[in-house]
Records
---
Amino acid sequence: MLLSGDSFLLLQLFGLKCCNVFTKMSSTEAEQIQIAVHSALVTSVKKVVGAHDFAKDAWFNYLHANAPVDAWHNTVIKDPARYSVGFLGDFLQHASTVCKDEAAIHEFTSRKVAKVERVKRTEDSFSRNDEMWVENLWIVVGEGVLHGAANLACQCREVALPSELVHHSGTAVAMLLGCISAGTLAHRLRIQLAPSFKFGCIHFEGKFSQWPSTPTQQAYLDRIDNINNCLRAWGVDARATRIALGQYIRSNLHPGLQHFVGVGVGGYGDMPCFHLDPDRFLHSLVQRGKKVLHDGLLVGELYAARTGQDNGIYTWSARRNTCVLSDVLRYYSQDSSTTLVVVLSPSGVVLHPPSSSDRTEPCDIWCS
C-alpha cells in the first residue's frame, strides 16, 4: 500500500475542503495552511513516484492522460509542485488503485514494457467545445462484438458498469440506461447528447445458432429468452411515462428506441440476424391483441417473420467473420459522425458517478 486509506482520505478531504475553513481565518493563516497542504501532497507524490519504477511510470502516464503540454518545453511538466492540490490528490487516489493491480505490476516487472503512446495535449483539447455531439447512440452487448470493425474505431467506446459482477445482458442494458439518464455516460466519455437523440441496440447472442423450427418452440433453445430479456430491458410503463412526458408515447418499449438487432454467433455456418422496428412491431401486436413481451411471443414472432409475415421484424443471414455492426449502421444510415457506438466490456471506462474532484477544466490543474 503506497498510502494508508485513512491518512489519504483525511489529507484529501482537508485539502479539498479547507477553503470553507479559510473564510473564518485571516488571509495570512489561510495561505500558510494552503501552502502546508500543498507541500505535504507534493512530498507524498514524490515518495510514491520514487518508490518503484512502476509508480514512476504511473505518474508519467497519468500526466500524459490528464495534463496539457507545456508550450515552452513541448512536453508535460513532471514536477508535482507545479500542480494543484486537487490534481495531486486525484493522482494519489489513482496510485492507490493501480498499486493493487497485480497483473499490471507483474507485466511491468517481468518483461520490457512497450513504449506507451504519448498523446500531446493543449489546453484547447480540454475545452467542452470539443465534446462529440451524439444524435444516435447504439448500445452493443454480447460475444464477437467488434470483429472486423476497424473502420468503426473512431465511433466506438468501451464502457464497464460500476460493479465487479458480470451482469446478464438485459440487466446490463438496464443499468447502462440508468447511467445515461443520470448523465454519467456523457461525463465519462465527454460527449453531448442531442435533446432528441435516438437509441439503437445490437445483441450478439453466443447460443443463438438457428431460427425457431416451430412457433411454439421452447424459448430456452438457442437462448431466445436471453435476447428477449435484452429487448425487455427497454420496457417502460406506458401510462406513467405518458404522464411524465405530457404527450402520447407508444406502449411497452422506450420511445427513443429506433432499432433492435439480434445476431446469432453460436453456430459454425451463416449467422441468423434480425432487425426489429419497434413502431411496426408494436403496431402489429396491438392489431392482433398481443402486447405482453413474454419469451414465447418473441419465438412466435421470429418464426412468423421467417415465414413471410409482416410484423415489424426483418430477418437475414450473415456470413461468419463479417462485421454485422458496420453493415447495420450503414444500411440504416446510422454511420455518420454523430453516431456513437457504446460497447459493454469489462475492460472499458468504468461508469462511476462523477465526483467533485474530477478534472474538467485546465484551470484547476495548475498551482495558483
---
Amino acid sequence: MSNKFEKQQTYLERESECQLHFMEDGPFYFICADHRDEIIFTNDAEFKYAINSTAIAVAQSGVKMYVDIIMSNHGHWLVSGKPEQCQLFYDVWRDKVYLMERDRDKQCSKVKWDCKIYPIKDLKMFRNVVAYIARNAYVAMKNETPIGYPWGSADLFFNRHYDNLPKGTPYNDLTYREKRQICRGRSIDLPDNYMVYNGLIVPTSYIERPGVENFFLHANQYFSMLARHAEADIEIGMMTGEKMMLPDDEMFSTVSAWSRQSFGVPIKSLSEVQKFDIAKKMKYACNSDNRQISQILRLSRKAVDRIFPIPV
C-alpha cells in the first residue's frame, strides 16, 4: 500500500508510464493453440503437466511470459520475444503434450495441432488480451471466476497474498528422479530461479508478474477489466475466431450500449427490425444462443428459432 503522503500521479502521467513500458518491453505476441475437438487435459495431474510444460517451453524458447491459461482442449499465452521464439515456445509445449497423450494411450498418433500467433499492436490491445486470457474460464464455465481458475495466471497480479504463500523448493535441489517426473524427457535442465511446490513449477518462477502490473494504471483497472469487460472478449474473439457466449448480465449491458449507439434508444424501445439487427450481432459477434437472444431482446423464442434454426 502506498504512503498517503507520496505524490499521487495524474492519469496522464501514469498512462504515459504504461505506454513507455509497452514500447520498451515488446514486441508482444498473443499465442493461441487451436481448439482440439477432443478433451486433452482431463484431471489435475494433466493440467499440472500442461503448466509445467509452459514453464519448460519458456525456458527453452527464451520468450518472456506475461499471462497464460490452460483450458481442457486449448491454451492461450501472451509473451514478448521474436516471432521465431514464439513458434519455438509453442512447438516445445505441443510436443510435451503429445508425449503426455502417448503415455496415456500407447496407440494414439500425433494429431496435427497448430497455433496462431498475433502481434500485439498497442497498449489497448495488450490490456484486452490480458483480460481475454484471464476471463477465458470464467466465460466458458459458470462455476469459475477470473481469479479462481487454478490453471491460469490471472490471480498473480496485484495480489499481495501471493507474497505470503510457500515459495517451494528450488528446482535444482530436486533429485534426478523428481526432475524427470516434471520434465518427462531427456532434457531436465531448467533455470536456477525455478521453484517447485507439490510437483508444480511455481508460476511466479516464469511469469513476468511485475511486468504485467506495469501495463495497468492501477489494481482497480485490472480487476474491473476482469470482472466486466465484454469489449475484450468481443474484439479478441472476432480476431481469433474463438467466440464465447458472455454471461447474461454482461450481454445485457453490451446490447444496451449497442442499442443507444446504433439507434439512440434503450432496448425496450427498439423496433422489431432493430431487434433482429442486434440479434444477428449477438449471434455472430458474441456466440449468443437463442435463449439469450430471446430473453435480452424480449423476442419470442419461436421468432428467434426461425432466424437461427437449431440443428437437429
---
Amino acid sequence: MRLDFSIPRRVRLVYFGRIGLGILRNYVTETDVAIYENPREQLNVWVALRMLLSRDLSEFSYYRAFLRWRKPKFVITMEDNNLTFFATNVLLPSCTSIAIQNGLRKSLSHSASTNFMKELRQVDSLGYDADVIATLGGLGTDFFRSAMPNSRAKVIEVGNLMNNALRLDDNIPAGQPRLVFVSKFPNRGSKGIDDAWNSSVFIYSGEVAFTAEQYFRVDSVVARECATIAQELSMEFCVLGKRPKWQVGEYDYYAHHLDGLPWTYLPSSNQASSYEQLRPNDVIVNVDSTIGYELLARGLRIAFITARMAVAGHDEITEYRFGNPLVQEPSGPYWTSVATTKEIRRVVDYVATATAEQWHADSSAARELLLQYDQDNSLLCREFDLLGVKNSGPRPWTRSLIPEN
C-alpha cells in the first residue's frame, strides 16, 4: 500500500480506477481531474481520517469520504465490474456517473456462493446505479438489463473503445493469410505454470469448481488442431498472446502442447498490440475471448470453438457458448460448441474458404446483434458532448497514450 499525504481538492472529473486510462485520455480532454485509487493500493491519509470519523472501515466508507473531498461533476470508469463504482449516485447524487464496459461479463467467480451478476442484483435493490452505461453491444446490454432491473441508467451500445480506436491495416501489410489462434492464458506473473495449475481451484462457474488445467484445457486442444490444419494448408500458424513476453507461462504452455508443430508466438507488448499484430486477411480462431467478438464486429473472418465447458466435462453449462443468450443455436457456419476434430475443421475450413459474399451473409446478423464496432468512437464522443464532458471528438488512439504492458 502506498500512502498519499496530499490534501484532496475539488475537481471537475474523477476517473474511478486506472483501468482503461490510456484509451479514456485519448478522448476526454478535461484537465481538472483526479484518480480514485483502491485504498488497498493507495491510501490518502486525509480521506482515511474522514472515513475513520464515520466509524465505518470499509471501501464504501472510504469512497464516500473521497467524494466528499473531491465533489466531482463527473465520475467515469472502465471498471464496470466494480460494485463500489455503482454507489456513486447514492453517495453523491449531484454527480453524473458513467460506466464503460471493458469486457464480457459471465457468472465466473472466485466464490461458489456468489458472482458479479448476483452481487450487482443485490446492490441494484439498494438503489445503486449509474447515469450512463456504455456497453460493448447486445451481449453487454442484455447482461446489465438482467443484472440491474431497477436501473434508470441510459444504456448506449458503443463497442470496445480500444477496438474502435485502432486500424488493423495501418502498420502491417496484408501478406499471406495466417491462421491465428487467440490465447486466453491467465496472468500467472513470472512464475508461469506451477503445482497449483492442476491441483487448486482456479475459478467457479456457479457452484462448479475448475482448476486452471480444466478451465484452459480447450485452448490447448483447439490450438494444436489449428496448428495441424495450418501445416496441411501451408499457412503460418500464430498464437496471439494475451500476456507480455516476460510472463513465460503462456509461451511455455503452448510450446508444450504444440510440440512438433511449427508455430509463431505473438506476445502482447502494449494495450494495442493484440489488435495491431493482426492482418486484415488473417483467419482467426477464438474460444470465448472478448477480443474475438470485437474482431467479428469489425467483419474479420473468425471461427468460434466455444467448447470450454464441454472440454472441461460440463457440457450442461451453456452460458459460454457462442453469443449466448442472444444466439441459441449450438452450432452454425462459423461456430461450434464442441471441440472434436471434425467440428474444428468444419468451421475453420468455412472461415478460410467462404467467399466474401457468403461470409457477409452468414455473419452480418450476429455482428450487428452481439457487439458494436464504431470506428474512432464517434458514439461515445457524442454522448460526452450531450453530458458536457470535454472531449477531442472522434479520432484514432494516439500512440503516445497507449500504455506498455
